[in-house]
Design brief:
Blueprint: H1 9-13, E1 30-31, E2 34-35, H2 43-47, H3 63-66, E3 68-76, E4 82-90, H4 98-107, E5 113-117, E6 120-125, E7 128-134, E8 138-144, E9 147-154, H5 185-202
Parallel strand pairs: 4-5
Antiparallel strand pairs: 1-2, 3-4, 5-6, 6-7, 8-9
Amino acid sequence: MRGCRECRECCIVMAINELQKPADEACPHLCAKGCDRYASRPLECRKFDCMWLTSILPAWMKPNKVHAVVWPADVQNEEGVAVQIVRVNFNAAFPMNSRVLRWAKRASQKFLVIIAYRDKFEAMLRGKQWPAGREGDTWRFDIQDGMVRDVTVNPAPCKDAHIFDLNDDACCDICGIPKRDVVDIEQHSEVRRLRAKLQEQDT
């Protein structure tokens, strides 16, 4: 098994629930030597091994070299059937590494690959790609014969201030979510009313 040595990428890229550390922020216990509470580190840190550390990935994919952490994870369908997938979390402070993306595309021929970059998520499976989702989206997995066969992503209501066109079927100018999928419809009715008033003033 390889050693982390100078690599600290997971201490930045990964969220740590026990410490309430969000993704893409340096852990408060990160220091020049590594972790200043290594002996008493959280259980999720103790249990975590990236796929480079376990020698599954080639040497060039060391996380601190490509600014991406690749790790195995489980997903399950609504019946509770679980399968293993591959997660790729890119460091938000750097552009996504194109070589890692090519590796992920090849890996998606055998496994579902979910890529996380900043607040966006994208899935790859056997050459098919699903558009980038956001934190809070609901993912449903069609699992057959121990493999993910298809993915459905239901977008979460956007928390941004939505700006809609006057068309009833319009999507938000900010997030692209259709108005019919937004919870706070009263807010958007007011936006439309104000826009109509402004248009009347201009004519």
